[in-house]
Amino acid sequence: MARQLALLLPFAAVLVACGSDGSPVSGAPSATASSTIAAATATGGSIPSEGARTAGGATPTVSGGTAGSATASPGASSTPGVAASAATSPAVVGPRRVIDLLRVPVGDGKVSTSARAGYVWRCGGGAGGPGGGASVKGPWFNSDGTYNATAKAIVDGAIGWPSSFTASRSGSSRILTGNALPNHVTGRFPIQPSDDAYQYDRNPNSISQQTLAVTLPADPQVAAQASCVSPPFVAVLASGSVVFDALDALNRDAGAWETQDRCAGHPQRTGQYHYHTVTACVADSDSGHSALLGWAVDGFGLFGVRGERGETLTNDNLDACHGHAHEVEWDGRQVTMYHYHATYEYPYTISCYRGTPARLPATGGGAPPPRP
Ligand SMILES: [Zn+2]
Ligand SMILES: [Zn+2]
Is the pLDDT confidence value at 272 over 80? Predict the structure, then answer.
């Protein structure tokens, strides 16, 4: 298939419980784009962020019954040039920033040696190591240091896998086991010469099963200090596959450079299928705060792109590690706790750890940096 809107694919409108009972999310990706994203596209590809309101100074209409949590703030006049449909998010008066999917800032080189917003704090300060990654800069890069996330080449194919994954709670531990194959379809890898994506990224790797066996704290605590992320992965999703940080082997923005399949995943050199960005193939809720999508290596939850009022989050709404704290559902209870969010902008997911990361077995590509 030609270029598609990877990020605009389905945020499935069905809330699928994942994690509280240890059962994996099941089901193939939906073919229906969510109304939120579709509406945003109609206004120029922009996704309204926190505090969205209609341009032109119209009186905000709070929708979704979440007005009680809305916070008014100074400067409630209109923001010229901001296009946002009132239907796309609860209209809350306040500061806002919009992630324009047509112009997402490229995060190349944004690697830090301490917790820093908008950067990935990689242990050792960065990747390096033998090459890999996209060979050619795709035409979806704009000339102003941004890229058009809706125009990336998508790896063709819709291949199903015998995924095995369980997440269970045992005492104070959460135990994740499986074969790391996703419970959704993937593209065809290695990327075929007939695939349009091949022009930009000749990912030669095949997807293969791995041994996934991770024990995390079930009720993680914020550590005295944040800590760096390192391979092999930063989170495990309810799909049974893992999330890598935002960088490719050359310290470039993997979300911008690499070509992924319709579920935003691809394999590295040991065959481990992984995501660098938010995937549309793990079901999120369709309103309000996003659903739990998986677990970071420190045990905290990784949720989707929406905050408490259903607003699309940006880095501005999150701390340097890409998270924040408020009440969420956790193993069936309402608990005020820290958690991470995905965003549509670099660094996309976890960029450092607020908790204490588990020591991971060096399986499934535990060696230095993931390729691609
Ligand atoms: Zn949250
Ligand atoms: Zn990758």
Answer: yes
